[in-house]
Please model this.
Amino acid sequence: MKKLEVFGANKLNGHINISGSKNASLPILAATLLSNKKVCLKNLPNVKDIHTMINLLQSLGSKTNFYNKKLIINNFKQKKNFASYALVKTMRAGILVLGPLLAKFGNAKVSLPGGCAIGTRPIDIHLKALSKLGVKYKIVQGYVHASAPKGLIGSKISFPKISVGATENLIIAASQAKGTTVLSNCAIEPEIKDLVNFLISMGCSIKWIAKRKIKIDGVKETKETTYSVMFDRIEAGTYLVAAAVTEGNLKINNLIPSIIKTEINILKKIGAKIRVKRNQVHIIGNKKIKSMNIKTAPYPGFPTDLQAQIMVLLCKGNNKSLIKEDIFENRFMHVAELNRMGAQISTNGNKAVVKGNISFTGAELMATDLRASVSLILAALTAKGKSVINRIYHLDRGYEDIEKKLKKVGAKIRRLK
Ligand code: UD1
Model:
């Protein structure tokens, strides 16, 4: 099993270039199934989840060529509509092929993704919304068997709760439904806007008509396109916290600062000095870190995918902080491991009380999910002594070249086999 060895506590200094967004790439890859023409995607991150999604597309009959962050997809002969458990179980975003397969073939059999470490993560919102487009479905032996006997038919749908995945699945499906679909109470994460821009570049007819409302006129045909995926805002946020927590000095490049306004404002309030340029955020960490209460929320709120990372920073705050996790019911898996490094965090349901003024000490650790893994690296970077982080396959699902990027700015980090 691969592990990471980290020696703290030195200040990070230099430049880090942000990669393409995993969470924007995954729905865009699923959406390529709508096309029978050549699609070229650029700036894809070279991480495990992207390879899993490409494998899933190949298993459905797509021809792909992935080289140097660029993927060329040909779907001329894409005819299969069965997504197997083996591929969907490791990555929940596999369920995003359901919408495009239904749009293309009128029926599909897609494995249920199952639960994961951070919560039960059902897909009821995806399925109920698809049924409003004329889809009949049943769940048999862990698979969704879905069909649209009359094809997908446009409809007015209001999501009962904001869901990133359900919004994406429905936008993709409705793009080739008959007639017009209006979706309300949509998630408006920047990755969804990126998906919409990609679909428009492919010839789909989609328009935001209010803050959380989108109108989609189904089209029959798509066209060839070349599209470059947006930057990874969670990776950017992670390195901003890395600078703040190590009292470092980092220039984070290849991003659009306005997209991460919430994170920048919170880091400023916590005490970091931040200067923003067109495609760069320059951050200088402060010795004095102010405690703060934070709750996670759908965009433009503070992202749940940065909750574990900010918790590490708040352990060094000048007082007690409160973190409320409002998106996933079980996203405090990192707490026990951080406490083994000297943190004093107690949880009660979806709330965590974080005691401040903590000095971390190195320890042998176990990573539990993608963002929890990276929070352990952040704690290890600021800890006295050596930490060894086990089970880092989670990390490889979503962070491109993390050791290389951290090493370049002065971290003592290496991978052990
Ligand atoms: C996506 C992101 C993930 C991020 C999350 C929230 C990808 C690949 N993943 O996940 O990194 O943490 O958004 O920003 O982009 N829910 C239901 N029923 C459903 C769907 C969702 O109850 O059918 C619940 C979930 O359990 C969760 C909440 O709604 O409590 C939000 O989930 P959702 O926004 O759908 O997250 P994902 O799309 O799975």
